[in-house]
Design goal:
By secondary structure, the protein is an alpha+beta fold. The strands form three sheets. Strands 4, 5, 6, 7, 8, 9 and 10 form a seven-stranded antiparallel beta sheet that branches. A two-stranded antiparallel sheet has the order 1-2. It has a two-stranded parallel ribbon with strand order 3-11. α1 crosses α3 (45-57). The chain has helices at 8-22, 34-41, 45-57, 95-111, 136-142, 174-177, 193-201, 219-225, and strands at residues 61-64, 68-71, 78-81, 122-124, 128-133, 149-159, 162-172, 205-215, 235-246, 250-262, 266-269. It has two domains: 8-71, Winged helix-like DNA-binding domain superfamily/Winged helix DNA-binding domain (Arc Repressor Mutant, subunit A, Orthogonal Bundle); 78-269, Chorismate lyase. It contains eight helices and eleven strands.
Length: 286
């Protein structure tokens, strides 16, 4: 047990945390019930409840109504390399490049003798396509009027059976009016949408800007990722705006992609200058 100067509930919680981290309490194991905890730690009901709450907030246990409290299986972090272009190299959880990074990480793990589950193949749902009025946060990025028509292309991404990310890309309807009608079709673009727009419209994609936000999940995101509905596990929102080169206006936005990833199973890395060839492994800061 920790030093007596610690509050009683913290002493209990930290004792249980050590047992979880050492494997004495394995993922899925059921903790003692409230009465058993009170007897074992000579603690009041409120103290025991505060200890369980402390562990729950840190994602170490989960309470199932009518069943009890269980050790939560900790997801193995996915490490994603953020890059400048979503279709040329590592790409912050976006598109074929992100899948290529996942497969390369799996290959490197196998070379180092990892015995992880073979059920780790990345896959994406079939795109769903919707024509809708642009919300203000989309209109702002695309430099159009709020409620002006946009094409929204949405996909769900998985690694094996694990829900990995949600992604929605918005395109101004002007691209369809210029001839990019395949944006309205619910299929993947083999060479990527940027290449399609280049071939179809002569669009000159010249760069992108990535914004990173952290917030509580909404109801749909919590359900898809299996997150607690009280917001204690955040999601990371990657907002990547793609720009085309317009001779008279300079870089001008032609799409914006919102990629949502749960913070409990994702880490991000950025490389600069010279760095090792192998992909970065998950990191710890405590």
């Amino acid at each position: 047990m920790p030093e007596a100067s610690e509050p009683k509930y913290r002493q209990i919680a930290q004792d249980l945390m050590r047992k979880i981290e050492s494997g004495v309490l394995e993922p899925g194991a059921q903790l003692l019930n409230e009465k058993e905890f009170r007897d074992e730690y000579t603690a009041s009901r409120n103290t025991v409840r505060d200890a369980i709450k402390w562990l729950t907030i840190r994602g170490l246990v989960v309470t199932r109504p009518g069943q009890g409290t269980f050790v939560r299986k900790q997801p193995q972090p996915f490490v994603t390399t953020l890059s400048a272009d979503s279709e040329s190299g590592m790409a912050g959880g976006e598109g074929a490049a992100a899948f290529a990074e996942i497969r390369e990480r799996q290959r490197q793990k196998r070379e180092h003798g990892s015995q992880d589950s073979p059920d780790e193949e990345p896959r994406a749902s079939k795109p769903t396509v919707e024509v809708k009025g642009a919300p203000d946060y989309v209109a702002e990025r695309l430099r159009i009027e709020t409620d002006e028509e946009v094409i929204a292309r949405h996909q769900e991404f998985y690694v094996g059976s694990t829900a990995w990310s949600l992604q929605t890309t918005f395109y101004p309807m002007a691209l369809v009016e210029r001839g990019a009608t395949d944006l309205l079709r619910p299929h993947d673009f083999t060479s990527g949408t940027v290449e399609y727009l280049r071939e179809r419209l002569g669009l000159d994609a010249c760069g992108s800007r990535l914004r990173i936000l952290v917030r509580a999940p909404n109801e749909n995101e919590a359900r898809f990722f299996g997150l607690p509905d009280d917001g204690r596990i955040s999601v990371v929102s990657l907002i990547r705006t793609g720009y085309e080169n317009r001779l008279t206006e300079g870089p001008y936005p032609f799409r914006v992609t919102f990629t949502i990833l749960p913070a409990d199973r994702n880490q991000f890395v950025m490389n600069e200058g010279k760095f090792p060839e192998e992909l970065a492994a998950p990191a710890r800061d405590q």
